[in-house]
């Protein structure tokens, strides 16, 4: 019996094992039995018999072991119990698999006249049970789905239901899988299934959400199959098109810009393939809606740029059939109106769309009508360039340049010339807007990309040369960018547009964004890497002699445009050049030690040319610093370079004795290892010792940095400490009379403090200092601390010169600064915080008693400077978050002590600065649970001290108005900084209440006292500005009104004061109204002002009986004035904002 006959007979429930054996042989690639070969050889009747027999086999298996008895994945995974799967279920699954395989092969070999009713019933049966298959049989489920997909592709009877199942499965997989590429391909082949389903049916509604989710997935939007499928979805239903468009609009803000182009392609494909009502819906609902959004959306909207990208894609397809007509039809009702809109931003957005789509016309029109339409649009371009708003003009510049670049060949030459002249001669010099000028130069690059523009541009561009010196940096950046473009496309000689002299002058003085671009522009001219190295040096010397400052800037940025190896080569060739100059000067020693006999630049340079020699040395240092990291990474190159320069540096120091040459030589030495210049170390220290106090920073800065780079900072610290110790007065603090000094002539404490200031001020030297062990820094710390005794001696009446007192005060300040850095470096201990606390206590005990009127002018001045210095240092401690809670509380006690002294008011500005840091530290960090009570107490103390400050200022104004006004002026900035701390807290916090209740009470009392002094009704006036108020109120309100947030806090506290009935006289109500009148000048507080004004009007009705008094009664006049001001405020609040 043949294999075909055996297989046919095995398809029976009595021979099921034989059937399953045949299926195993088919799946075994090594066995020759293959259903794909066997089934085509069967006769038509045999095939029909096979399908009938396999249907009966399938039905028998399902009847014997129905799906209700199957153990699914849920039972298999339930609890810890092991569920045994029966042999019946295993056999049933095998039969289903066999039937699926036979059916799939049968679908492929179906012939035209085959009766496949039984095969269809098999497929339908599988469709009914596929969802009930156990999870462990996922491959079988996939095989069934493939059968349905094949059924759909063959366009067989019953394909709708089977294809729908396959479509749903593919759709679900594409949405859930991370890499759905293969599923996307299958889904794309099944997309026609969707057309067989009515949108309003249950199936249609079931699939809407999964289909819309496809538009969320970048994988769908980017893949070719995904684009094809998503574009197809636009052809399902009109309502679904609207849903798709809304979904995309909602998702655009989350899409990256790169994805917007793919979204645009989907829209375009959908439009190209659509027809009838679908085409109308896509054009009106999608494309035209995008056009309107591109015009009306704010430019800072996250969606605006992506909508523009989508439309840009359409504009770029103008060469395709139908696109021009569509753009003309859809833009016609909206674009021309938008170009004339009153809103400048709408006009600007419309301008970009108009110029991008230019020319907008219908190709079906006659050529004459097209020409007329294009001419109108060209006239519109000129009008847009003259728009009164800079934003529109800038957009028009961009648009015009893009139009000229694209349409140069078709636009009349006269129009091109007129447009370019308008850009270059008018808008490039638009004094009203740097943005417009900037856009001209940025957009010229677009025109220059069209080579046809080069002859005309070469004639017109020289008119722009003065723009290199534009007052706006971004305009200068854009101008140099244009020169770079001219050079790149070879449109003209850039030096004919702007001369080399002007470029170098701007390079010397301009900021890095401009100077870096100029270096890029000139790089090949002065650093021609393709020519010999001697040419590099010649160009370097030429640049130095042309403009030394520009030369330094050029080589400062040269490393950006060439390899580090070229920079090192230039350094070495400059070294050769210097050596030749020295040899020519007759230095035989150097001539014998350097055998590099070169004669380059002999006629140009000489050792006597100090300026050129110094410039070459400076450029050496600049070049070395620019590639220092790269050199350090290549130790072989570093050793070679350092050895070359170390061998000649001593001789350079001997030959070049001028001060300008010494500075770069010292810096050059600092770049070399200390071991390569042993003799120079002692010379540098000797130089530092030999300088005098008051020497310019430039005289010692290089030496200090040199020693730091060599790791010799300890020598500087030791020198400073020795000078300070030698100059400290002998005897203890209680000594009165003349102070004696030991060795004062040899010591230079002022110079030592200048060195210390430089070290602490610069990050590199400061970091170097704090790499020293603490034991090497402590002596300096103690030496600075001892100078406090000299301050006390001076306060006690000892005869000390003013210069020495200044030195002592500086030492006191540097002691605090050093404590801050050391505490930051060693935060584990409180050693240096305790030292600061000791200094604060010393100020309280020894200095504050002299802050009194009984002290002499010298004592008062010194005590004030000492207290202010102490407060400033303590403020810095808190600012860098070095102080802890105990230190903060100690400072508040100190501040209270300062304010209690007779002349403590003189220190109010630094007191406020310190309170600002305390408040910020308390409010900007969330406290631990166990610290909340302590923090609350600190805030109460803080607000009490602030109230005391306000009271002291008010008291000072009453006692001495002139001095009080000076105090108000000096405290204004500090008070503003203090009030800004309110941004760290909530609206009704304890801190807010305490601070603003003090300010509110102070202002009301201050104004009411002024009103009480009025003796004639003519003196009752309405304040027009804050300057019409008394000094204290003037200062407080001026500070408050600088910040809208602070003003709202103040108004909130004033409202609380009114409701609390704390105001009890007509003068105080008048004072409140004065305040509101000043604040109403800003339109930002209408709601708050209206609420307070209504409350005040209700309250002053209690004083209506005053109107019965005589007209010359002050109280009556105040009442009437208050009512008038309130009415003015309420009238302004009721006016609508226009």
From TrEMBL:
Name the GO cellular-component terms. Answer: condensin complex; nucleus
Give an example GO biological process: mitotic sister chromatid segregation
Q: Which SUPFAM superfamilies match?
A: ARM repeat
Q: Which domain of life is it from?
A: Eukaryota
Q: What is this protein called?
A: Non-SMC condensin II complex, subunit G2
């Amino acid at each position: 019996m043949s294999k075909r006959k055996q297989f046919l007979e095995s398809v029976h429930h009595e021979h099921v094992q034989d059937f399953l054996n045949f299926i195993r042989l088919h799946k075994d690639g090594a066995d020759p039995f293959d259903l794909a070969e066997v089934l085509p050889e069967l006769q038509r009747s045999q095939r029909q018999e096979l399908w009938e027999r396999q249907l009966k086999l399938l039905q028998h298996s399902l009847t014997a072991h129905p799906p209700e008895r199957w153990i699914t994945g849920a039972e298999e995974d339930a609890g810890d119990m092991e569920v045994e799967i029966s042999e019946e279920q295993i056999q049933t699954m095998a039969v289903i698999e066999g039937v699926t395989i036979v059916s799939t092969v049968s679908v492929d070999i179906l012939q035209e006249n085959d009766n496949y009713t039984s095969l269809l019933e098999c497929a339908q049966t599988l469709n009914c049970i596929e969802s009930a298959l156990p999870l462990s049989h996922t491959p079988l489920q996939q095989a069934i789905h493939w059968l349905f997909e094949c059924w759909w592709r063959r366009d067989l009877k019953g394909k709708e239901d089977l294809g729908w199942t396959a479509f749903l499965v593919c759709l679900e997989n594409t949405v859930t899988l991370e890499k759905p590429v293969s599923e996307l391909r299958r889904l794309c082949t099944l997309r026609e299934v969707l057309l067989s389903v009515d949108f309003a049916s249950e199936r249609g509604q079931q699939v809407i959400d999964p289909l819309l989710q496809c538009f969320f997935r970048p994988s769908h939007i980017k893949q070719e199959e995904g684009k094809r499928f998503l574009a197809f979805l636009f052809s399902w239903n009109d309502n679904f098109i609207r849903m798709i468009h809304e979904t995309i609009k909602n998702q655009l803000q989350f899409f990256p810009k790169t994805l917007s182009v793919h979204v645009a392609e989907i829209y375009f494909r959908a439009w190209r393939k659509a027809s009838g009502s679908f085409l109308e819906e896509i054009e009106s609902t999608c494309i035209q809606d995008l056009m309107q959004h591109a015009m009306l959306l704010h430019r800072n909207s996250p969606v605006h740029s992506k909508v523009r990208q989508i439309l840009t894609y359409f504009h770029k397809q103008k060469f395709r059939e139908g696109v021009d007509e569509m753009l003309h039809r859809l833009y016609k009702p909206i674009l021309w109106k938008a170009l004339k809109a009153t809103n400048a931003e709408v006009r600007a957005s419309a301008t970009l769309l108009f110029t991008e789509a230019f020319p907008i016309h219908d190709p079906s029109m006659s050529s004459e009508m097209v020409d007329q339409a294009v001419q109108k649009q060209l006239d519109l371009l000129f009008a847009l360039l003259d728009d009164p708003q800079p934003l529109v003009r800038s957009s028009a510049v961009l648009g015009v340049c893009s139009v000229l670049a694209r349409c140069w060949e078709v636009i009349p030459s006269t129009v091109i010339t007129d447009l370019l002249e308008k850009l270059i001669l008018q808008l490039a010099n638009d004094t009203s807007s740097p943005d417009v000028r900037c856009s001209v130069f940025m957009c010229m690059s677009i025109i220059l990309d069209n080579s046809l523009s080069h002859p005309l541009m070469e004639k017109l561009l020289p008119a722009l040369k003065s723009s290199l010196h534009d007052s706006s940096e971004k305009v200068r950046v854009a101008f140099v960018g244009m020169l770079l473009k001219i050079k790149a496309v070879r449109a003209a000689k850039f030096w004919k547009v702007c001369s080399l002299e002007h470029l170098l002058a701007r390079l010397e003085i301009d900021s890095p964004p401009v100077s870096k671009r100029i270096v890029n522009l000139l790089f090949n001219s002065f650093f021609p890497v393709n020519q010999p190295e001697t040419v590099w040096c010649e160009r370097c010397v030429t640049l130095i002699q042309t403009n030394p400052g520009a030369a330094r800037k050029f080589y400062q940025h040269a490393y950006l445009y060439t390899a580090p190896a070229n920079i090192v080569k230039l350094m070495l060739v400059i070294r050769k050049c210097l050596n030749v100059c020295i040899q020519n000067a007759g230095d035989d020693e150097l001539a014998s030690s350097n055998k590099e006999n070169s004669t380059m630049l002999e006629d140009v340079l000489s050792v006597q040319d100090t300026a050129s020699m110094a410039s070459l040395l400076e450029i050496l240092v600049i070049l070395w610093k620019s590639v220092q990291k790269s050199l350090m990474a290549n130790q072989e190159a570093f050793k070679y370079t350092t050895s070359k320069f170390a061998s000649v540096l001593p001789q350079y120091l001997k030959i070049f004795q001028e001060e300008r040459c010494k500075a770069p030589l010292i810096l050059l030495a600092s770049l070399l290892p200390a071991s390569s210049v042993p003799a120079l170390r002692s010379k540098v220290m000797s130089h530092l010792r030999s300088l005098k106090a008051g020497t310019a920073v430039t005289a010692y800065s290089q030496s200090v940095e040199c020693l730091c780079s060599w790791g010799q900072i300890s020598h500087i610290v030791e020198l400073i400490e020795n000078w300070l110790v030698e100059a400290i007065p002998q005897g203890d603090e209680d000594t009165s009379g003349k102070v004696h000094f030991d060795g004062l002539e040899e010591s230079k404490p002022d110079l030592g403090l200048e060195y210390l200031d430089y070290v602490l001020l610069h990050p590199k030297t400061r970091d170097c200092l704090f790499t020293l062990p603490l034991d090497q820094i402590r002596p300096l710390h103690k030496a600075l601390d001892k100078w406090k005794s000299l301050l006390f001696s001076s306060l006690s009446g000892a005869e000390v010169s003013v210069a020495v007192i200044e030195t002592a005060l500086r030492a006191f300040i540097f002691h605090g600064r050093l404590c801050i850095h050391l505490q930051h470096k060693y935060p584990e201990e409180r050693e240096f915080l305790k030292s600061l606390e000791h200094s604060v206590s010393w100020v309280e005990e020894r200095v504050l008693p002299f802050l009194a009127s009984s002290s002499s002018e010298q004592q008062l001045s010194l005590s004030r400077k000492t207290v202010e210095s102490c407060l400033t240092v303590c403020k810095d401690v808190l600012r860098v978050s070095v102080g802890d809670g105990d230190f903060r509380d100690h400072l508040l006690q100190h501040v209270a002590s300062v304010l209690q002294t007779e002349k403590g008011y003189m220190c109010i500005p630094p007191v406020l600065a310190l309170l600002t840091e305390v408040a910020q530290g308390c409010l900007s960090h969330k406290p631990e649970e166990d610290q909340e009570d302590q923090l609350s107490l600190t805030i109460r103390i803080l607000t009490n001290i602030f109230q005391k400050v306000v009271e002291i200022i008010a008291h000072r104004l009453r006692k001495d108005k002139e001095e009080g006004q000076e105090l108000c002026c000096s405290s204004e900035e500090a008070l503003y900084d203090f009030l800004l701390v309110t941004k760290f807290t909530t609206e009704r916090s304890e801190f807010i209440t305490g601070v603003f209740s003090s300010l509110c009470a102070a202002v009301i009392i201050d104004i009411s006292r002024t009103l009480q002094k009025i003796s004639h009704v003519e003196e009752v006036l309405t304040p027009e500005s804050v300057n019409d108020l008394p000094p204290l109120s003037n200062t407080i309100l001026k500070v408050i009104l600088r910040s809208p947030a602070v003003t709202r806090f103040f108004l909130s506290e004033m409202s609380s004061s009114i409701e609390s009935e704390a105001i009890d006289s007509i003068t105080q109500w008048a004072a409140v109204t004065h305040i509101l009148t000043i604040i109403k000048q800003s339109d930002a507080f209408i709601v708050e002002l209206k609420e307070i004004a209504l409350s005040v009007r209700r309250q002053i009705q209690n004083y209506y009986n005053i109107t019965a008094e005589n007209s010359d009664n002050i109280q009556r006049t105040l009442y009437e004035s208050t009512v008038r001001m309130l009415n003015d405020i309420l009238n302004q609040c009721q006016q609508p904002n226009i």
